Amino acid sequence: MAEAPEGDPVPSSSENSESIIESNVNDDEGPSPKKRKTVIENDQIEKLEHRLGGILCCAVCLDLPQAAVYQCSNGHLMCAPCFNHLLADARLRDETATCPNCRVEISKLLSSRNLAVEKTVSELPLECKHCTRVFPRHSLQNHEEKICEERVTGCRYACLGCGWRGAARAAAAHEAACAHPRRSAADLLELLAQRERRARDDALVHAQLLDLLSCEKITFNDLQLKPYRTEELHKLYYETSRFSAFSHQWVVKAFVNKNQRDPTQSSQREITYQLILKSKPAAPLAVSWACVRGPFGEARLAPALAAHAFREDEAAPARALPLLDPADTNRLLAGRAIHFR
């Protein structure tokens, strides 16, 4: 038994028991007040983000909008794709578009953008789909496409035929050991020939367009495709007014999912158009044309050239409107007219 040094009070047995009880009580109480406060704040932040997600979500798809946010006159929110889809469906059905919540009428004139909601949503956190780290939505795309070490990327020697795909963090190690840079010129001849053929095909369209612009007789017309209806239910078509070109009268017609009975039942929609000669030529009339976005057009078009030899009151074969983004179909249908040149 050790002897207590002089000057140090010897705690009594009652004091020992009290200190042990107090220690046990503190252990039973859980984390310290500071830690407990931090845990509560984190829970509150997560709950706040969850509540905001439920409040700011689109009334149609129930997801947080990625870009533009529209609202009806009563303030109900819709993301841009759903908003355009509602307007396009109403146009196809010959009905008035309404808000899915309150059934008030919606249109591009009666509805407005909600910039406050757009900025708020852009600040909400979201996990990276590659590394599961959390970032504000406005910076997430840049992280996923350019920064994230777990994003899927290709080899820098893909132009030499390397088909490796993997995480960005492993790209440097792969490229250091990649065998494609050491291939002989003879091995690369076929690959270079394929690339040359693809480049030639891409350049051909632009060359044809430039040749078309150098023709002796050329004309430009700014046209509006206005919506009309057939007697058949749900059949919407578009038609321009008559216009003059090369001393003849023409019209352009367009159809939505021409070979489908009810386009409202499909989420994938396509607009096809036909150039129609309305006058009587003395001989077959060979015409080449290209469609581009008009001064008030809302969708970009891919460069495409078409040609046909017209006879009396003849329509050219139907062609798909060459939209760069298929989602722009609903955007065009949501408007009152389609503008092109």
UniProtKB/TrEMBL annotation:
Q: What's an example GO cellular component term for this entry?
A: nucleus
Start-end of TRAF-type zinc fingers:
118-162
Biased composition (Low complexity) is annotated at 12-24
- Which ranges carry the RING-type domain? 58-103
Q: Which of UniProt's keywords are assigned here?
A: Metal-binding, Zinc, Zinc-finger
Indicate the segments forming the TRAF-type domain, all copies: 118-162
Q: What terms describe the molecular function in GO for this protein?
A: zinc ion binding
Which domain of life, per UniProt? Eukaryota
- Positions of the region Disordered? 1-36
Q: Which PROSITE patterns match?
A: ZF_RING_2, ZF_TRAF
Asked if the Swiss-Prot or TrEMBL record annotates the protein with the keyword Zinc, the reply is yes
> InterPro entries attached here?
ZFTRAF1, Znf_RING, Znf_RING/FYVE/PHD, Znf_TRAF
| Signal peptide (UniProt feature, chain positions) | none
Q: Which family does the record assign? A: Belongs to the ZFTRAF1 family.
Protein's name according to its UniProt entry: Cysteine and histidine-rich protein 1
